[in-house]
Amino acid sequence: MEKLENLLTKKFDELPTITKRMSAIMDFINFFGYFVGVEIKLNWQMNNRSTFTLLLIFIVTWLIGYTLYAQFPSLSCVELLGGSALLLSSAAKYVTFVLNPAKFAQLMKFIENVCDINQSGYREIILRNTTATVVRHCKFVFGGIVSGLALYSCWPCYDFFINGNYTLVSPLRMPFVDETTFKGYLILTFVNIFAASVAVFGTYTYSCIFLSYVDVYDGLLSLVVDDFGLFDRMHDKRSQFRPECACIFRNTMVELMDMARFNFAMRELFDDCATVEIVCCFYGIVVVLFGYLANDYIGGIGAAAYFITELLMFCFIGQLLQNTNDRILMVLYDTKWYTYDVAYQKDILFALLIFQDLQPISVASLYPLNFETGLQVISSVYYATLLQHNHILYNKFQVVNNIYSSLMIILEFLDK
What we know:
By secondary structure, the chain is mainly alpha-helical. Helix content is 81%, strand content 1%.
């Protein structure tokens, strides 16, 4: 708890070593992950909290099925299906972690080792800036999630406190609970808020883990740039520092290969989850906006805002990773390779071949996870919503036209 306080205040900048700063970041992430039983630890195992989270996923899934059965074919079913996108994306994150706890922990152990061996000099400054970036991005994501939840909660809170209506935060229902009574309203509101809180805690924990890996990945590249700068300066005087040059270049190539493995490990952990996340956000936005257009579901606007926030958050993380991958190639191109010995030139060429084929985290192995993909999704949402709007207006026009025709027939009949 002390390190959590350090991260949220200016005390974080006063932590003396990189290791303690990274430890504070991990404590911050594990603080939120504790509530859902997801923590970055080498010896992590299923515990009571993680088992309860799994049980809660099954209970909410059953409640969704019960609500669909009880209210079908009401339009509330459509709104509920939109909300199920949050459950599906949260379950995907949870399952990804439960199936690969050792891989998450090994990446974090690698980060700790990097911090341990770079405790002084300019390299220490680079990693201090990296940890500051991680903290800034975690706060940014936290603000985005809170803003999305606040927008979603505005209408139910306003309708309850101002108008006195029992407006639920979601169409989810429970057996033997009457939502028209105050007691039933409180029970359903508590269940909805509790389930959503668990989902949001898991989403934020997973997002912070993702952000930490991506930001450290960029920090590793900054270390490589520093090594290349040192190598270039010593290579100009290679007659004096030939053994040192060989040692530095070998270490730099090892760092590049570590980055390639780190990238592959991130894609292995986040590819499938990113696909589920983007699909669920698209599906959720389209469905809740349909509920708003067809059934005047005011909460659909807030729900759409939350899904858009989550969509852009993941695209932001993917964009950071893609920017780093692009920068790796620029770093290799900008080296003074034309002055290197032939052996060094061959190693640079080998590194170029590897990083040119480096793949970003992708959506369905088709689209890279970045802002361009996010904008394409939002554009698709716009066209889908436009089609829904036109279809709904057309149906309403047809209903009005039929009523008008019927009235005209009746009037003609009465006139005769």
